[in-house]
Amino acid sequence: MSEMVTIERRAAVEHLLQNRDDMLVVCGLGSSTYDVYAAGDHHANFYLWGAMGGAVMIGLGLAIAEPDRQVMVITGDGEALMGIGALATVAAQKPNNLSIVVLDNEHFGETGMQKSHTSHGVDLAEIATGCGFVGCQTIYDYDVLDAFTNKPNDPTGPRLAVVKITTDNPPRALPNVDGIYVKTRLRQWLGHQPC
Amino acid sequence: MAVSTPHIWEDDIYNAFKKASISQVPYVPDAGHAHLIRRVHDDPDMTPIVLTTEEEGVASSCGAWLGGKKSVLLMQSSGVGNCVNMLSLITNCNFPFVTIVSMRGEYGEFNSWQVPMARATPTSFEMMGIEVMRCNSPEEVGPTVDAVLYAAFASEQKIAILLSQRLIGRKEW
Q: Could you read off the pLDDT of A13-44 as tens digits, one per residue?
């Protein structure tokens, strides 16, 4: 872990969502879900408690379905690595309303803090750049994070930021575990009736 | 390079997609779906999504439904095993789910490496709570797809349609 890392995960997510308006948010299982919930429950949040590796692709399907809304996927390095092929799939689609944020503590935090691939040098921003994402960056301080948050999406395609975070482990903040409820709530918020 | 001859029932699938307003079609290609995939690419009202692995299409289909859109996943039988854990997303959240699977490893298969996953395909779906329907003859395909799309998206059912290799024809080597 680099000595430069000072961003804490929960503060990072607060910064990302402080001016979210009606942005749709999909968050990966584990700490990302806890962080998004801790930043404030919202009908436009889709919390994952499983389906590891699926967050980016849920975000892609939603971004294509809702082209006039902003969609942000917030997930961890482990979840992003498991679904790494999805970065190629997203880049091939070029949705300009999709942002992917990887909270990268370089460890599998939920399972005992084993080192992940990113602690061994794997660079997710470089991988995304190679796939065709525009303006990929690795973020080490809050000012740059705020600049990313406040900058409108690039019209030419999806964007991705890796936010290097400390390995602090704040208390879990648990959203509703009922997936049917969370799904129906989001659909209704978008104006789609339950079946 | 092998280019498959279009099957008339591939047009029947496409027409059922149009009738049901299917708008996202994620796929890992197979020769059995080649003509249908070309028609999806030619349709401005459909978004084809080429995948690196099949479970991506399970997840993207859920995202589509969150946004009020209908998606059908196309794959061949060898990819069904890749989807197993991601299918928990379907059952946990009660998402509608339709996949059309071209079967390899059955009737007249030369490549024995296709056989184990072919045999495990119905079990893989059923153990995750996905209903399985099979089409063996050309005239079954259109009505089956039409019925499945109606049921799935009217009441969030989860159904896999298997297109048997006898229907598709064996791959010539």
A: 999 999 999 999 999 999 999 999 999 999 99
Whole-number Å distance between alpha carbons of A18 and A150: 10
**CATH-assigned architecture of domain A9-189:** 3-Layer(aba) Sandwich (3.40)
The share of chain A scoring above pLDDT 90, in percent, equals: 90
Which residues on chain B are in Cβ contact (under 8 Å) with A195? 96, 154-156
CATH number for the domain running over B8-168: 3.40.50.970
**B65 and chain A in contact, CB less than 8 A:** yes
Q: Give the nearest chain A residue to B88 (CA atoms).
A: A51
Find the DSSP H helices in A30-141: 31-38, 55-65, 77-82, 85-93, 124-131
Interface touch B52/A85, C-beta < 8 Å: yes
Q: What is the pLDDT of residues A142-160, one digit of tens each?
A: 999 999 999 877 788 899 9
Note whether A93 contacts B47, CB cutoff 8 Å: yes
Looking at the partner chain, which of A49, A65, A89 has a beta carbon nearest the beta carbon of B56? A89
Q: Backbone phi, then psi, for A159, in 5-degree steps?
A: -130, 160
